[in-house]
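Structure, all two chains, one model.
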Amino acid sequence: DIQMTQSPSTLSASVGDRVTITCRASQSISTWLAWYQQKPGKAPNLLIHKASNLESGVPSRFNGSGSGTEFTLTISSLQPEDLATYYCQEYNTYSPAFGQGTKVELK
Amino acid sequence: QVTLKESGPALVKPTQTLTLTCAFSGFSFRASGMRVSWIRQPPGKALEWLARIDGDDERFYNTALRTRLTVSKDTSKNQVVLTMTNMDPVDTATYYCAFGSYFRVWGPGTLVTVSA
């Protein structure tokens, strides 16, 4: 099975900061990668699929990039409503795997 | 517009079998490429994919849990059912159903607590 590793586990930032989260796959997944945002008590919300395709309605300050085994999610200017936990997920296999999550909090 | 909603017991005892239902609308399994997965999340922990069923009735399971899981669908009722046997307190989690290969639509989730 593929293992997905996110870093950092927690990220402290200020409003307006540029924020970058990294996700690494244990083997190549091409661009079969999605990113989700989850707020407390809520189901995850899809932000990006196929590594860089922004889901309809998601603000353009969110950007995904990467291919193969290394991927990044960037928030160009952190907003208060972006405080949440972010997960990557590969869907290259029949047993899709999530990363362990990155919690974005206010500095 | 695709919607999903999970239902099932809030509390199960250790060793019991859990049965959860995902009621959906906005798509038909008869259409090509339709698929529904089950995903869980223990309190304060990460998401874990459990199982998937496709419109052609192909089924896929989490490698570590496959002996305990069964996923099925009732196309006439627009439902997907997950059973998990031999429940343990470590299986306490919010259980979600979700639509697609990447999960564009999620149900709100249902919290299942395993306790004697």
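Chain A has a mean pLDDT of 97.
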